[in-house]
Amino acid sequence: MKLNELSPAEGSTKNRMRVGRGVGSGKGKTAGRGVKGQKSRSGVAVNGFEGGQMPIYMRLPKRGFTARNSKTHAWVNLSRLGKAIDAGKLDAKNVTEESLVAAGLVRNVRDGVRLLAKGDAPKNLNITVTGASKAAIEAVEKAGGKVTVTGPAKDAADE
């Protein structure tokens, strides 16, 4: 078999219908669009239009809003940090956001990494992150470690 001998399976393809090419073609005159009205014209996209009835997206109630200045942090739990350190993927003496990505604990940094307190803190952990919960900081310091938070300082307006 050669490339020039290849052809599609019988009945798997159809020729496209050429519309508006005379009455004898079977799709002449109105080209299958019916008669008159907005949809029979070209350049029409009436998505969500319900013929003058109030469209469903306007009838249903809206809730909440999305803040334009919101941040999306990647987060990591103390238990996952402990497992990675035990497996030798991380060095407990110097954990940074870049080392967390390299170890596969965080997929990408986004607006920073936030440390959360789920699980037991590894011993003598020295970690630098954008943010951390109070419970996580307390747990790490109780286990003899240190958390450095590099996140943006809280303004008086934020409180």
From TrEMBL:
The keyword DNA-binding does not apply. It holds the Pfam family Ribosomal_L27A. SUPFAM superfamilies: Ribosomal proteins L15p and L18e. InterPro entries: Ribosomal_uL15 (IPR030878), Ribosomal_uL15/eL18 (IPR021131), Ribosomal_uL15/eL18_sf (IPR036227), Ribosomal_uL15_bac-type (IPR005749), Ribosomal_uL15_CS (IPR001196). One of its GO terms (biological process) is translation. GO terms for cellular component: cytosolic large ribosomal subunit. Residues 76-148 form the Large ribosomal subunit protein uL15/eL18 domain. Residues 21-35 have a biased composition (Gly residues). One of its GO terms (molecular function) is rRNA binding. Residues 1-45 are annotated as: Disordered. Keywords: Ribonucleoprotein, Ribosomal protein, RNA-binding, rRNA-binding. NCBIfam families: rplO_bact. Binds to the 23S rRNA. Belongs to the universal ribosomal protein uL15 family. Part of the 50S ribosomal subunit. This is Large ribosomal subunit protein uL15. It comes from Hyphomonas atlantica. The gene is rplO.
